[in-house]
Amino acid sequence: MDEREFGRSHQHASVVGLGTWQLGADWGDVDDKEALAVLEAAAESGVTFLDTADVYGDGRSEQTIATFLSSRPDLHVLVATKMGRRLEQIPRNYVLDNFRAWNDRSRRNLGVDRIDLVQLHCPPTPVYSSDEVFDALDTLVAEERVAAYGVSVETCAEALTAIARPGVASVQIILNPFRMKPLREVLPAAREAGVGVIARVPLASGLLSGKYTKDTVFAADDHRTYNRHGEAFDQGETFSGVDYETGVEAAAEFAALAPEGCTPAQLALRWIIQQPGVTTVIPGARSPEQARANAAAGKMPPLTEETLTAIRDLYERRVKDQVESRW
Predict the structure, then answer these.
(1) What is the pLDDT of residues 65-123, one digit of tens each?
(2) How far apart are CA 193 and CA 212, in angstroms?
(3) Whole-angstrom Cα Rg for the chain
(4) Among 59, 120, 121, 273, which is 20 to 30 Å from 198 by CA?
């Protein structure tokens, strides 16, 4: 699979990575054996970028990655984690002492002395404008606790503020055919600055797979049940902020645009990969089959202009008004 560079850090990632939220929590149960099988399938398919966080399963996701990589010393994989959600998300908690404590815990979980990439985990908006916060992140690099740092954001405005910081190596943002605003505002700025872009929620929490109907029921411990209206965290993280019924209808139209031999999920991933400025896209997977299918999108031919135009038209008609004013 092709790899792309995070310009400022000179690290590389496969164009399709693996998001490992599913291997920790909040998507229903995934047992340890299945989680390791997902990681193996992704690696066999050419995935060299894993994204996790210290709060996914309270560290379970990080620990699972460590177990897998310890059994595969032959692999060269870039592992990115996140920090910032272990305490109340208020600006005064984003200080060096807490960063060190969170970093110590993640390094233990991952079994490493230095983390490849650490990201602030969607902190409060004022954090992005704090010199002290970014000085503290620079200190983590100087202390060789992390090789590079980035941010995970909710809004385009937050992304643009972060990109202006000279030490930021990457910005992780929601980007998919139901969330196109970053194409206009964030990707050009990131390209110019040499900042990597990690596209998350690429399937709009599964909507773009085309598998759900208005009658689909998700488990009680699945965020697609308990956070549908932003009850637990930002609503944009669940179905990209699109109303579920609207999303199901729009997803049916989207699925009909998939070329022969391409699933709707692969269509969504291929669309993201083609956007100039994207470094990697991080779909999750709950089974080895899903991991392989997602990775296959990284090797598919580019979409035609006709297909790209049809996807844009669908977004403009069905989705844009629900999401652009908020994120």
Answers:
(1) 999 999 999 999 999 999 999 999 999 999 999 999 999 999 999 999 999 999 999 99
(2) 39
(3) 18
(4) 59
